Amino acid sequence: MSDRKQFRDLVDPDVAHDAIDSLDLAPEPEAVPLSEARGRVLAERVDADLDVPGFDRATVDGYAVRGRDTFGADEADPVTLNLVGTVHAGEEPDVPIGEGEAVEISTGAVMPDDADAVVMVERTEIDGERVRVRTAVAPGDNVMVAGSDVAAGARALGPGTRLTARDVGLLSALGRDAVPVRGRPKIGIVSTGDELVRPGEELNSARGEIYDVNSYTIAAGVEAAGGEAELYPHAGDDYDEMERLLLEAADECDLVLSSGSTSASAVDVIYRVVEERGELLLHGVAVKPGKPMLIGELGDSAYVGLPGYPVSALTIFRTFVAPAIREAAGLPEPQTATARGRMAVRERYSEGRLRLMPAGLVTDADGETLVYPVDKGSGATTSLVEADGVVAVDPDTKYLDRGEEVEVQLFSPDVRAPTLLAVGEDDPALSRVLDALERPRFLPLGSREGLRRLSNSVPDVAVVAGPTERDVETVDLGGWEREWGLVVSDGNPDAVDGLSDLIDRDLAFVNRGRDAGLRASLDAALSDLADERGASLADLTGSIRGFEAGTKGFESPARAVARSEADAGLGLRATAKKLGLTFVPVGVEDVRVRANPDRVEKPGVRELEATLAETGVYESLPGYERAWRDSISERGR
Length: 637
Description:
With 637 residues, the chain is an alpha/beta fold. It is 24% helix and 27% strand. The strands form nine sheets. Strands 28, 29, 30, 31, 32, 33, 34, 35 and 36 form a nine-stranded mixed beta sheet that branches. A hairpin with a 2-residue loop joins strand 8 and strand 9. Helix 3 packs parallel to helix 6. The longest helix has 20 residues. The protein starts with 12 loop residues before the first helix and ends with a helix. The N terminus and C terminus are likely disordered.
């Protein structure tokens, strides 16, 4: 009587996918040195602990000056300034700049005290100990202010990010020497069959021996999918030896893959090992090639048996197993190294040379790929992180029109457009919201610039805080309220009580930049205070030391206070609590997430709206609560 295992009731491929999905392949997260981080997947969000750069620096070779000393200068009527010193990159300036003075400065060097602009060397002429300036510069010209690249407290990289060389560069700039990553599932590979010989060993074809192809092709596939392959010795067709090897691999690995010994032959006994020492979930799938497939569990490990023929084994691996390994490792599905899409905006060019335009991808509501330019300047690490690839623009091209089709050379084959492109106000609650989404991208541009970008129809949503002036047609998805005010040293040693203290006392204050919603709220509060006092707003702000010099990051003012570099900073109660500082409340600010009307039905936007409605996002943040104004889902679509 035959003891062959019969294939009856072959399951649908979807059932096989479900069976593999039910297996637990994911290892525990781990920390790895930065030198080993490339290609790994972040297990949690990484926030910036410092401003990058940490100082105001020159972006060109030239002369550091006070901008107001150059007003009116031109080729015909230059301004002459006294040259009082030199500062190079890597040096600490020791010469402050006074009225009518300049300091020679190198690209990347720290700006001297009281200097607020740099004149390019090409627009100057040396005359002994003086320098003639043939152009006027405004405060901020040719200067990268502290935090312009990455601001302290900003969301640098989100969980699920596969770390490329660009990301490692960003982490290096943040001073991280180790990063938390998802573990790589360890995959044990056991090839079965008395006929198999390892490559490099002597082959006896007369005995029907063949080189082991499957172990190495499957191992390469495992590594490409984000797993760690471990090859075990060959298992012959002996039950005891096969059982020993499979159980050894199961004890050491998250998943055991075998190839061969899965068919109905009487000598193919591997299915009996799984049945007797584990659990066999299915045997046989209605797919060609690859019908003889096993799925089950051995001890605490998952198990998949692949067919013996190399083509069948690799086909089944790629179709069923590789996606599960990628998911366990946190890696996306691969795609080709180029992508085609339509320009989301019109982009003009005038340089007359080949342009490799850093470009980001975003999809519209219909899933069509749009391409937008990404450019924060050559000194910004995050330009590369935010870009998905480059568009090569021919030197003769004057512009790329909106809607024009372009090809993007992707930075890696697994790049895909984010499920959501958000811009606008950076915020602690927003970071938590983004963590809950599948694959978002957020550009911290500030509320005002975020609304401007939304008006150009590139992003899906803009996060907007405080009062806004720009009238843009949007759809409100929901939002929250946050308490804002002044952050001061622990214990409030200067007894700061409110905005009046900034005006009436000589306190060093650190403000936010003009694009920030917090800045808009502060300006509105000061305007009300000016009305109460019967004074002009300009007079009030002019009496606040440091009012005009705004920072990019929402934590930067508070961190300046923590470093004893300021008496007070504009910030949030949540930031003060996080940094162990004291908070002086001033007001409550509304933060709204406003959607591009054409993208409301996009899956990523709908996922965002659902997450915004979950109050748990805000409950543990001091000074935060959900704003109960209706979102579109509460009003009905």
